Amino acid sequence: MATEGAIDMLITLIGSRNELxxxxxAKAVANLGVNSENKRKIALAGxxxxxxxxxxxxxxxxxxxxxxxxxxxxxxxxxxxxSRSCVxx
Length: 89
Known about the structure:
Blueprint: H1 6-14, H2 19-32, H3 36-44, H4 47-54, H5 60-74, E1 79-82, E2 85-88
Antiparallel strand pairs: 1-2
């Protein structure tokens, strides 16, 4: 899924005005963000700033999914992905 353009599509969907689409796309990014290869792809696709913006939603259900996605992106034994670059820890 991630290798077939899903990440770019999901990052685009995060910016939707539809709350259900925002929540479900953030949840999908959270699931993909567990994989270390996908972390870099999500960061390079501009996913982190969009997730940070989504985490400021007034709806708790959207906040939860956005923060879960950010948490999954941040956790890795060797790397911490910030903005659009990868910083070796």
